[in-house]
Design brief:
Shape: elongated
Distance between the termini: 44 Å
Structural class: alpha/beta
InterPro entries: AB_hydrolase_fold, LYPA1-2/EST-like, PLipase/COase/thioEstase
CATH superfamily of the largest domain: Alpha/Beta hydrolase fold, catalytic domain
Organism: Thalassiosira oceanica
Strand order of the largest sheet: 3-4-6-5-9-10-11-12
Keywords: Hydrolase
Protein name: Phospholipase/carboxylesterase/thioesterase domain-containing protein
CATH class of the largest domain: Alpha Beta
Number of helices: 13
Pfam family, one: Abhydrolase_2
Amino acid sequence: MFRLRAGHVFFLCLRCKTKWRGSVQVIIHSVDLFQALLPNAPRLGRIRSKIHNSGTESDRTTISQCMCMAPTPLPLAFLFFQLVISIVAAFGMTHTTSSTDGTITLTPRNEADQTAAVVICHGLGDTSAGFEDVAGHLSSSFPYVKFILPTAPTQKVTMNMGMPMPSWYDIVGLDKRSNEFCKGIEESRSRIAGIVKSEMDAGIQRSRIVLVGFSQGGALSLYTGMQLDGADGPLGGIVVLSGYLPHASGFKITKGFEGTPIFHGHGQADPLVKLEAARESQSEVQKRGSTNYELKVYPGLPHSVSPQEIADVGAFLGRVLPPDDSCKVQLKDPGEMSIKELRGAIAKAGLGRQAVGLMEKREFVELLKQHRDGKL
């Protein structure tokens, strides 16, 4: 009998909890697991290559735990048991996932339930997929929050010998002086501000939107969030993970934004963005008027995120984005939608099975209305 090693089952359980949210995803990820059963297949090769690409910043802690587990053989039957559990769990997820032009979006299964939004910006060399698992984990605690994960444009990065990679702006070096040269940061700032505006146009108040980012993405979130136009008030909050304040000479807090809640989590053992840089960033932002900047240091943590840090982010989101049914998203009336729009909305809501056999537009309209009213 072929046997599955403990590391594979651990990763399977992780994916079940954080990422699988539909039958298609279940099928795709099960392929990885069945490949692990082949006698000559390289163990954890796909996981290793995905997480440890050169120049990629992402959460390595959980995967490292997976790789270090003892290779205790487990029977094949256990694989199928876990697979069945994951399939059942997938249909109970609170969000649906879509991907367009590199942007991954986790939308409440019933779009009408959305009352807040969180934008997550990845780090240098990564993509939106790097934090999809984190967003999936957080989404289970926030069924009313839409999570948006954009991907940075690919451009040459001076610090990395001019190699092209996903980057929100050019990085010349990691020292304080080099940090002033951030070519492209204003374009990325405008893009994130545009995402915020799109959510506001849909009816979400700016105070119900939070920017989150890791490393370079955290720097961009801080730089953007505290400098939005003042007409619509400040954001609900900003989360900076292993990040810093970029282009400090050009940074000025918008009047009225001084009290914006900022949570900055940073590893004490970070060799890339050192803890001193985090403390300097806090000091610089406070000098400019910030009155609500929390810096939390995680002992022994390198340039990464940890389960405790993600739990702290969840607690922060719970404080700044509590449930509030008074500010729900404004959706287009199903009766005013085209057939194409109806089909897209029905698919996004996971109503494909219920739509089987429907022929008339009025039937699709009624199905979507019942879903939004919570009758399905």
